[in-house]
Amino acid sequence: MNKYKKLILSIIFDALGYVSFIIPGIGEFADVIWAPLAGYLMTRLYKGKPGKIAGIITFVEEALPGLDVIPTFTLMWLYTYVFKKEDDVIEI
């Protein structure tokens, strides 16, 4: 998948996590459904060990009250495509 499609999906998934703030009282119930789904989506969007770790972090972040404001999908995209260094290869 194109990295910019992943960015768009990451922003959409983060926005879905914010929806629980719109309807008071319903938000915590929505998080019970969204937390495992978000963790699963993270592991599907970002493969390998980093995706699994991010999936666990996303699940915990969505499940705990008050942490929904952290844009974990977008942060994972930034980690994957902006901050992560490729393996150092020395060419001779």
Task: Give a quick precis of the structure.
With 92 residues, this protein is mostly helical.
Task: Write a structural description.
Keywords: Membrane, Transmembrane, Transmembrane helix. This is Rod shape-determining protein MreD. It comes from Flavivirga algicola. The structure is a single chain. It is built from four helices and no strands. By secondary structure, the protein is mainly alpha-helical. It has one domain. The longest helix has 19 residues. The C terminus is likely disordered.
Q: What's the domain count?
A: 1
Specify the helix fraction band.
Answer: 55-70%
Taking all Cα atoms into account, the compactness measure Rg is 15 Å
Distance between the termini: 33 Å
Poorly predicted runs? 88-92
> What class, by secondary structure content?
mainly alpha
Largest beta-sheet details: none
Q: How many runs of DSSP E, i.e. beta strands?
A: 0
What overall form do the CA principal axes indicate? elongated
β-strand amount: under 5%
H/E series: HHHH
Query: How many helix segments?
Result: 4
Mean pLDDT: 86
